[in-house]
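Possible regression after last week's pipeline update?

I re-ran a chain I had predicted before the update to compare outputs. Posting the input and the new output here so someone can diff against the archived version. Not blocking, just want to make sure nothing changed silently.
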Amino acid sequence: MDLPVFEGEVYERQDFSNGQSIGGEPYFRGEFYTCTFRDCDFNAADLSGVSFSDCTFEGCNLSVAKLDGTRLQDVYFKNCKLVGVDFSICGDFAFSVKFEQSNLHLASFWSKVMKRTQFIDCELIETNFTESDLSRSTFKDCDLSQAIFASTNLERADFRSARNFAIDPASNRVKKAKFSSTELAGLLYQFDLEIE
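New output (post-update):
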């Protein structure tokens, strides 16, 4: 079955939560190219198998949206709520995302290859990055409270303005990663030191 194709469309203040329709289709299905979604609600929406290429989401709520096999290629999320989203089940081919001023509390990127990903001014609280490849990624002005880094490739990643992270250099690849001297305690937490 061929999926409907949408190109260059702009969707504003639409409710796609819990399987609402788009373009007359009973569920949110299709391939979206260079589309923009502004202030749309995708809360708990099933976006499985949907393809997004060069798309932008601004001010959207995608909390607990289902992304099983969803293709995200060059997708930009700005000022979005992505609480509890499991990106680990997205399609791996050409996976490329950017996040700015977004809430990714309890999101999961487990085992995801996402080199050079930009996280700018994001809340990444309790976000799971276990076994993911974040080499050369940027965490600018991000809150990483209780974020999980285990067997994660963080080589050449930039944490200079990130805060509240706890990264064990012995169980993660951190070669040439960049850190601010004021946040070095986040690399030594496992030693239970009192740093002043």
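Follow-up from reviewer: compared with the archived run. The longest strand covers residues 75-78. Marking as no regression found.
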